[in-house]
Amino acid sequence: MAAAAAAAVGGQQPSQPELPASGLALDKAATAAHLKAALSRPDNRAGAEELQALLERVLSAERPLAAAAGSEDAAAAGGGGGPGAAEEEALEWCKCLLAGGGGYDEFCAAVRAYDPAALCGLVWTANFVAYRCRTCGISPCMSLCAECFHQGDHTGHDFNMFRSQAGGACDCGDSNVMRESGFCKRHQIKSSSNIPCVPKDLLMMSEFVLPRFIFCLIQYLREGYNEPAADGPSEKDLNKVLQLLEPQISFLEDLTKMGGAMRSVLTQVLTNQQNYKDLTSGLGENACVKKSHEKYLIALKSSGLTYPEDKLVYGVQEPSAGTSSLAVQGFVGATGTLGQVDSSDEDDQDSSQGLGKRKRVKLSSGTKDQSIMDVLKHKSFLEELLFWTIKYEFPQKMVTFLLNMLPDQEYKVAFTKTFVQHYAFIMKTLKKSHESDTMSNRIVHISVQLFSNEELARQVTEECQLLDIMVTVLLYMMESCLIKSELQDEENSLHVVVNCGEALLKNNTYWPLVSDFINILSHQSVAKRFLEDHGLLVTWMNFVSFFQGMNLNKRELNEHVEFESQTYYAAFAAELEACAQPMWGLLSHCKVRETQEYTRNVVRYCLEALQDWFDAINFVDEPAPNQVTFHLPLHRYYAMFLSKAVKCQELDLDSVLPDQEMLMKLMIHPLQIQASLAEIHSNMWVRNGLQIKGQAMTYVQSHFCNSMIDPDIYLLQVCASRLDPDYFISSVFERFKVVDLLTMASQHQNTVLDAEHERSMLEGALTFLVILLSLRLHLGMSDDEILRAEMVAQLCMNDRTHSSLLDLIPENPNPKSGIIPGSYSFESVLSAVADFKAPVFEPGGSMQQGMYTPKAEVWDQEFDPVMVILRTVYRRDVQSAMDRYTAFLKQSGKFPGNPWPPYKKRTSLHPSYKGLMRLLHCKTLHIVLFTLLYKILMDHQNLSEHVLCMVLYLIELGLENSAEEESDEEASVGGPERCHDSWFPGSNLVSNMRHFINYVRVRVPETAPEVKRDSPASTSSDNLGSLQNSGTAQVFSLVAERRKKFQEIINRSSSEANQVVRPKTSSKWSAPGSAPQLTTAILEIKESILSLLIKLHHKLSGKQNSYYPPWLDDIEILIQPEIPKYSHGDGITAVERILLKAASQSRMNKRIIEEICRKVTPPVPPKKVTAAEKKTLDKEERRQKARERQQKLLAEFASRQKSFMETAMDVDSPENDIPMEITTAEPQVSEAVYDCVICGQSGPSSEDRPTGLVVLLQASSVLGQCRDNVEPKKLPITEEEQIYPWDTCAAVHDVRLSLLQRYFKDSSCLLAVSIGWEGGVYVQTCGHTLHIDCHKSYMESLRNDQVLQGFSVDKGEFTCPLCRQFANSVLPCYPGSNVENNPWQRPSNKSIQDLIKEVEELQGRPGAFPVSISSETNLSKEMESVMKDIKNTTQKKYRDYSKTPGSPDNDFLFMYSVARTNLELELIHRGGNLCSGGASTAGKRSCLNQLFHVLALHMRLYSIDSEYNPWRKLTQLEEMNPQLGYEEQQPEVPILYHDVTSLLLIQILMMPQPLRKDHFTCLVKVLFTLLYTQALAALSVKCSEEDRSAWKHAGALKKSTCDAEKSYEVLLSFVISELFKGKLYHEEGTQECAMVNPIAWSPESMEKYLQDFCLPFLRITSLLQHHLFGEDLPSCQEEEEFSVLASCLGLLPTFYQTEHPFISASCLDWPVPAFDIITQWCFEIKSFAERHAEQGKALLIQESKWKLPHLLQLPENYNTIFQYYHRKTCSVCTKVPKDPAVCLVCGTFVCLKGLCCKQQSYCECVLHSQNCGAGTGIFLLINASVIIIIRGHRFCLWGSVYLDAHGEEDRDLRRGKPLYICKERYKVLEQQWISHTFDHINKRWGPHYNGL
After folding, report:
1. What is the tens place of the pLDDT at every residue in 1195-1210?
2. Exposure of 691 by Cβ count < 10 A (0-12 exposed, 13-18 middle, 19+ buried)?
3. Which end of the chain has a smaller Cβ tally under 10 Å, C or N?
4. Could you report the per-residue pLDDT of 168-198, keeping only the tens digit for each?
5. Cβ(258)–Cβ(226) under 8 Å?
6. What is the DSSP string of 847-874?
7. Burial class of residue 530, CB neighbours in 10 A (0-12, 13-18, 19+)
8. Which residues sit opposite 1781 in a β-bridge?
9. CB 778 within 8 A of CB 643
């Protein structure tokens, strides 16, 4: 057979088309072995041919593709069971052939042995959790897989965990990307040395088989690809082909995982050009290959690519579809050409129609770029594989395969070159793709692996023109979405900008290409090539200019814009990513002097581009009004390179600056932005919608500011330092539109600004000047100083968390710059300026995070308002910083009043920028300052304290920076002859300050008060008063001044200049005719800046002559003025400081100040107030008064509210509070009085109008979680640690009940235990009461109110109308006596026998209620409805335990168990014992009393079988009938198996309320005897045989003593002897003894056991007594708790005082002779034990010592939880959940929101919360580190109990820093769980619709 097969393969029978499949299948292995042998021979030609023939047939591409194409008949003809079978077969063949006859798995193992794995190279896809260590990384993109990370040593490093966005690969072992110290143990050793050589024959077959296999794959890809139809490619078809190919690609992927040996074979195959040529040329006779080659050519052509050979032909027929528009000169838009490629983008043609005269783009060489864009020639399998990978839009499998090969160095180089060669094609495919996001991620997944490696990037740059390709491709990409710019000259503009509305920008489609570009620019060698290549720089500046002026905003003047465009997001992102980040990348390589040349290049081409831009937009000297663009990347490139040149490269600034005219142009647009910012904040752009505010905020926001506002301000500073200061200052005021305001006249007309905006625009202009003059970011500060200033500014606005600080400090965006967040300098500066405030917890408050707050000395010396203003996104932050500063000064006692922003001395200027200070010494500024001071003094409108503050700041700055000491000789000649325009003599501020200005000519409206005077202003002093009030003046020349300067510079003819000047009185802004005419008036002023300052001082202080020159007392002050760098204070101190500085700088000034002070200034006459003004003044005053009143009211209200909160809400309130709903009146009143919080009336609760307590009913399983050991269980973090809930309280009780139900009568079982350990109903109240009818109307109003806050009114939920606590029911208060003075409480002296009789009689009587149940009153109705509520609170399964469904016994059991649950929970809230005593912590908020009434009312509807009343069994001896052993029906539960506490509750609830105290005591006494007997019985079962017999005898001896009934030894011996009669002790085999404690029982230990057994009962009973009779609980030590409670309950005789140790038996008070009744009780057990000794014993031992419930204990480090759970599969659906969560109560692992585990529309978490917590679930979300609480139908995010080293949460693990458990927070969580206060404390609840 084998021979036949071999012969057939050998090819002697070519006619036979196909062998019987079975024959082949049997012998694949044999054939393979045969072929391998044939090929191993030296002459292996024959073998090779055989193999080829076999492969031809096995891997024939015809048949499967026919099937893939979907033609059914082809599939039928092919047979072989559908499309998949043939491929399977082919794969099997390949595996067999590779293994050469052996087993494939052994072959894999053999190859792996030769793997020189020096690199990890593990490839992952999106959402994989990986690590990044900045300490070990060389490239910022470095990443490690979890395994390598944990195996390496990264302690103390700066690392974080992250979820991969695009996928990646592990860099462990690659020393190009990371430091070797960080390698993990596996990849540390360079292992190639000790790996043996690969034996030749091992991989020989692979070398023959793989080329055919890969060719076959390529044929599939060719066949399967159909050019998409016109309506866009059908992704379905492509995906179909890919699905069919899945097994083949997976096979290749598996091969790559075999390690280095196999990878090198694959590399050979993929890169061998000969192989490729032979197989694919399509020349042979094989029709199939020919056809596939044609398809390949078609695919190339349709992609707009030419195949090199056909190039000429295409060139003639048509400019091929993708011709580079750069090469085709003057190419019009994208119409004729791109149209063919992008036929899917219809809008493409329209938008490009208008491109008309597009500016020509010249490139360094046209032909080169032509080839970049359009020519592809494939020479190897690898190249064509990549081509198809791109065509099919990067299928994940293919990407993974290509990346898995990267550890092979040779492949890496080849692949990188191939990738670069296809770069343009990638861009085209990306642009057309519908799934551009996914595709982008895949592209970056590949490129980041290639370009992060500097060596590789350099090689490709040199050999493949990588930079040319990238820049050209980017340029080409952006060209497709250009539109005409409308900036400046709309009609004639030649400038084109990108259209931000296009998908390309909106969806960030360009980012893969840009991020690659940024990545390669981070390598120095590559960046240098770029900076040296002039052609590239020109092209790049061209690219940048596409963004210059994009997203232009035009101010809406009439109506609000209809549609708010959101394109600004795209614009800001594009400028940051495409322009700024490459710029930062380049800047990082221009750090040293040697790189000066690069800067010169960039600056030169940048200026050229700017000049072109100014020409294109037709810019002369005035910006167009009402438009602004925030995007000036060219300006910013220029600015940043200038800054770098001066700071790092020691370049002379003037050598790189252009001429004055260019500087003037450069300044215009950045200044326009600053003015627009002020306009936007003044609400002048409000009609443009919110988005314009968004732009203004983004512009200064931390991620953008150092690429946007900082360079702009710096550029303006450079311009200001080189231009004429007068020109600059007047430009500023003109841009800010406040020129007209700067007049001395009291009224003026502003033609360009509405009056209401004037004030804020003036403030804006002055603030801008202050920032311009005091900011030193680029003018001489070092990096560390900058970082410190930034940090101080952010911390002063608000305390910040560490992560938000990192986010807010603008970092140098280029990652290699060295100032990385979290770096050493960041931490050291932070610790220098800030203190850490650890996270605090207010009980019931919100969770605080760890915060940093400025140190006191920072407030004292470093707070810099200028920096704060520059960096605030919201204006309110400036106010917040000032408030905090004020608070600091008050607190530290430095300044009591309202301080002004402090004046801070600046760091000195870099010499290159000294010219900036000339602004402070120019006449124009002085005139402005003088005018403003005068206006403020005269109280003109529209001026504010802020204006004054800025004016004084500027004066002070000028004094600080005065050029030279001026000579004092120069006399100040003032006087009328120097009138009007020549305001000041010189330009030095120091001398100008004292210059008196006498008269000013102003233009005023005719209506102004100045005009109405008849006589010209006389100079007599008596007239001064009236003049002073009305006068003011105008720097009329401001604008003209500016024109003049501009003309001087640009020597144009005067005629042109006249046309430029806008007429001032255009009535554009006011309706024609309404504008009053302007006329000229002359004002008498007679002031100097100094005199104005001194008058201001008087005005501010409110006193005449308040200023007294300090140097008159102490002349030293002037010689050495102690002027601190930093000064606090308000306006008065500022004025004093300025005068002192002025005096110390010039003797003249000193003299003049003294003179002015000597003239006693006449009092300022009261202002004449016009009626209108008076009105506004009154209004103001009234408003002020109203405000004060409101403040007072609010304060009062707040204090009232606070005191209320303290009384009503406090969790741990003083213990002595009276219960709130009870007003303690005189003792004789027995009726309780309640206040209704809705109607406010008080009165008793009555039958007809009952009052109720606001309560919250919730089901709770907290009790069921108690365990008997103290240590809480740990959360499982390995497979071994699983939690089994068999030892919880709930489980133990369940087992007990089912055991009883097995052997005893059902109805009696249900009276022998309590339920409610799981799903018990807990009732809590806030203590407020309301009338039930008021409540109903309140609920109605809530129902009609649509805005509901997170609760559901239909389910009866509401919030307490007074304290807003969450509630869902109302518990009626039973009318009647007050607990405090209960007439029933007086002790009676009846004997216990009498009392027992009374109790029995009372139990039988139904109606000690004032009302019989039958009569329906409002009260009884309400009681019934609240009982319904209580039942519906918990699920049915927690109520029905009876075997007969719906039996009344169920309700009976449920009701007394509700009482039990509430008592037990209160006990837990008190810490599990009553040692603390005192009133209940919930004392004033306890509702047990009311609850008891409701329960008792309903319990008495049921009667207990009178012949089976436990009371009788306890108190009466019956005839014992030995025959009655076992009847056919099940017996009653023996009394010794009863739960005593349950018996107590049943007895009490069956008696009429209110109960008498002596009856209660009687009940307790009787039940205690039973309890004690149970304790003895349990003890007897627990001890060993010997102990038992010893005790039996010891006790028997004492039986006859007098108090035998009160001696535990006697009683124990009696119990033992009684139980001995049954078979209870007999069946103890040897195994039993092993279980029993080997400890010997001493009398002490027995006493302790008995006490511990009885304590839980005593505690519950004492609590009950406290609630029913209002008695306080005594406090005590733990060891004496038993005796104290016993005496409190009246079990201990009061005279009982002993020296010797206390014995529990002394509390016994037997109602009938002890031995008789014990005999009777034991008899019941005996008969049962004879049959079931085991169970009989088990039931006797009741576990009563439960410890407090706890949540699971969590590990210290979050990573341990995360690593175990985030990959763990769900036990239900066996998948790894997308959102895994774990229950913190029981440790169950669940899928959050997982549809896989949904049952009847409930998702798994909701379901689990119902099963585990009866509706309350606490889950830790593994992937987010936060805890989520589910409570019934609502849920809330609680927060995280894991914090990082800085005390912060890391929700969603975004930062990925190591997290550690915060024990305090976990304690808070546990406390809220135990106390059931989730609803009250957490505020943000929402419905979960069962979808969690």
Report:
1. 766 666 666 555 544 4
2. middle
3. N
4. 899 898 888 888 888 988 887 665 556 667 7
5. no
6. BPPPEEEE-HHHHHHT--HHHHHHH-SS
7. buried
8. 1790, 1821
9. yes
